[in-house]
Amino acid sequence: MHLNHIEISGFKSFPERAELAFDAGVTAIVGPNGCGKSNVIDAITWVLGEQSARSLRGERMEDVIFGGSDARRPTATAEVRLQLSQVTAALAMLSGDGNGTAVVLAAPGVSNAGNGHEPKVEVTRADVSDNDNEFGNGPSIVRDVEVGRRLF
């Protein structure tokens, strides 16, 4: 499985949309202290389904939503979107041996049969605060993809 691209918006220290591309090979996230390097990893962990605020270095799940600063107002939503490729091969390793459960995702209306390319999968998760300052923390929102089948 290969992480191609991540978009982060309103998540922790990213009040505006930030996009990172991960080319083939080794990618390093570098920068000075406090610039958000760990928050990129937290965003990946969160979009893949992490439900523990403590695992995401927070006290409550609403801490994932940008809380504002001296220069910026808080945001109402946090959204993280991943684009993954080479998913089929990774899921094939999980299935068949009885040690894991895999979910095959396919883009609706896109057929990759016979073209020699693996499908690209986009996974999105968003938390939204409502007017009563309550925060949603449901399961991951999977948008623009559909669950094809489960392999056991």
From TrEMBL:
Key words of the record: Cytoplasm, DNA-binding
GO cellular component, as recorded: cytoplasm
Residue span(s) of domain RecF/RecN/SMC N-terminal: 3-88
DNA-binding recorded as keyword: yes
Pfam hit, one: SMC_N
UniProt signal peptide: none
GO molecular function: DNA binding
PANTHER family given in the database record: CHROMOSOME PARTITION PROTEIN MUKB, DUF4476 DOMAIN-CONTAINING PROTEIN
Name of this chain's protein: RecF/RecN/SMC N-terminal domain-containing protein
Species classification: unclassified sequences, metagenomes, ecological metagenomes
